[in-house]
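To the wet lab folks,

You asked to see what we're planning to order before we commit. Fair enough. Below is the target structure as tokens, and below that is the sequence we designed to fit it. If anything looks off to you, flag it before the synthesis order goes out.
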């Protein structure tokens, strides 16, 4: 997928996965988000996400989209930053992102993209794993 196709897919989706790593221990969090320019923003509350991001702001963010015949996946790698300047917080609030869970999430995090990549593929049944070139390996 081209860079523009990757950003377009990110803009169409609402739920992604934030991958972090602290002291060699990976973690992953589902988050709803919004795209703003070449970055992704999400809201959160104090807790493990913010703790991990303060220890290591380098993250990966992934989204998938699929139907019965096709699928696509986009991975963004970048640096996460807690918004602390009121002007940035006000601009993020204006994007209209609401939490999916009934909790107060007043902290905004912006992931500035360093790289973005994606792939599309057709969905279908698994090939016969025991036949290659017409021969049945299980009986050969």
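Sequence we intend to order:
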């Amino acid at each position: 997928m081209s860079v523009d196709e990757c950003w377009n897919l990110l803009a169409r989706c609402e739920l992604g996965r934030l991958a972090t790593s602290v002291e060699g221990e990976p973690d992953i969090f589902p988050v709803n988000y919004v795209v703003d320019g070449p970055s992704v923003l999400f809201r959160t509350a104090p807790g493990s996400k913010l703790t991990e991001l303060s220890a290591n702001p380098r993250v990966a963010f992934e989204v998938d989209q699929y139907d019965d015949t096709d699928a696509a996946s986009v991975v963004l790698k970048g640096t996460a930053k807690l918004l602390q300047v009121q002007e940035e917080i006000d601009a993020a609030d204006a994007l209209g992102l609401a939490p999916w869970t009934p909790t107060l999430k007043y902290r905004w995090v912006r992931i500035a993209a360093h790289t973005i990549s994606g792939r599309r593929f057709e969905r279908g049944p698994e090939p016969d794993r025991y036949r290659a070139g017409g021969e049945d390996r299980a009986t050969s």
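Structural context that might help your review: The longest helix spans residues 3-12. The chain has a mean pLDDT of 90.

Thanks,
Computational group
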